[in-house]
Amino acid sequence: MNLEYAISNKNNGYRLVKVLGTIVFLLFSYCYVNFYQDDVLLISQHILSGGQTHYARSIGTPLIVLILWLLQLVVCRLSGVNKRAYWITFLPSFALLAAITGVRCYNVGVYSWWPWYWLLPLLWVLAGGLLWLARQLQPFESELPDHPWQSRSLWINLLALFAMMFLTCLMSNPGEVYHYRAKMEVLISEKKYDEALKVGEKSLDTDSTLTALRIYALAETGQLGSRLFEYPLVGGGACMNPLDKNVHLLLLDAKAMSKQMKTGKLKRDCQLSALLLDRKLDEFAGLLLKKYKVNSGLPKHYKEALYLYTHTRSHPLVTMTDNVMDADFEDFDKLIPTTESAVRDAYGNTYWYYYKYKH
Q: In terms of Cα–Cα distance, which of 348, 213, 224 is closest to 276?
C-alpha cells in the first residue's frame, strides 16, 4: 500500500511540474503577444508582406501560442525530460517567441532580423545539448518528496521559466519609443485619435516620428494649439510634415496625412505651431493676427507664446496681458536659475519651457 501511494504521489508531483509549467508558459505567451507585442507584430507583417496581408490579433495570437506550445510538446516527447530540467523543453519555444517579435522595421521596405538569423539556431542547438545532458542525468535525480509543493524540482522549473520570460522581454524589446510609434500608427489608422494621444504621454522619450504622429492626432482633434507642448518634442517645425526625411511612418500614408494637414483649420494651426516649434515668435505674431482674434479665447499655447512675444519685444505688433499669466510667468522666471528638472516639473506643459530649454 505504501509503495502504491509513493508511486502515485511521485506521478502527481511530476504532473504538477508539467501542468503548472505549461500554464505559466501559456499565460505569459498569450499576454506577451496579445497585449504587448500585438501592434509591433501588425507593423512587422505589414512591412514584410509589402502591405498585402494584415495581422489580426484574434487569429494571430492563438495561432502563435498554439505553435509555441506544440513545439514544446514535441521537444518534451522527443527528449523524455520530465524532472528538474523540464524547463529546458520550453527553451526552443521562448527563443522562437523572441525571434518572432524581434523584427525591427525602420522604414517602408527597410527592416532587420539581426541577430536572430544566427541566434535562433544557436539557441536551439544549445537547448538540444542541454536536453541530452539532462536526459543522461535524469535517472540519478532524487525522487520527489511526499508533498509536491515542497519539491525542489517544482521551484527550480518555475524559477527557470520566469528567468526565460524576463530574457524574452529583454532580448526582443525594441525600446519604448518604437512601441509607442507602432501603437499610435495603429490607433490613428483606426481614427482613434484620443486614444492615440494617451500613448506614452507620461514618458519623456520621443523621436521625430513620434512627434509627427502626435502633431497629426492633435490637429485632427483640434487640440494642436492647446496641448502640443504638453508632450516631449524633437525635430522642430519639420515634423509638421509627415514626408520629412526624419519622419519614418510604417503603416500610415504619409502623403495623405501631409495633404490633410494642408487643408482648412488644420492648415492654420499647423502653420502657427510650426513657427512656434522653430521659435519664430515674430512671424507667429504676424500670422496669428491674420488667423485669429486676439482675445482670451485663444488656445493655451498661443496665449503663452503671445505673452512671451509681448514681453521680449520693444515694439510688439500686438500685446497680451493676463493677470494669472503674469503671476505664472513671474514664477517661471524665478525657477530658471534652478535645475531644468525643477522647471519641467512645474512648467513642462507650457510653451515657455519648450522655448527656453528645447534646442
A: 224
Query: What number of other Cβ atoms are within 10 A of residue 318's Cβ?
Result: 13
Q: With contact defined as beta carbons under 8 Å apart, do 97 and 68 qualify? A: yes
* Calculated CA dihedral for residues 264, 293, 283, 325, nearest 10 degrees: -120
Question: Model confidence over 108-121: pLDDT tens digits?
Answer: 878 888 899 999 99
Listed in order, strand segments (DSSP E) in 60-155 are: 104-107, 110-112
Distance between CA atoms of 216 and 239, rounded to whole angstroms?
Answer: 10
pTM: 0.90
Residue 110 — φ and ψ, nearest 5°? -120, 115
In the chain, the amino acid numbered 97 is L
Burial of 19 per CB tally in 10 Å (0-12, 13-18, 19+): exposed
Other CB atoms within a 10 A radius of the CB of residue 1 amount to: 5
For residue 333, the number of C-alpha atoms closer than 13 Å in the C-beta half-sphere is 9
Are 181 and 213 contacting, i.e. CB atoms less than 8 angstroms apart? yes
Nearest Cα to 305, choosing from 330, 334, 325?
Answer: 325
In whole angstroms, what is the distance from residue 250 CA to residue 209 CA? 10
DSSP 248: -
Q: Is 255 in contact with 243 (CB distance < 8 Å)?
A: yes
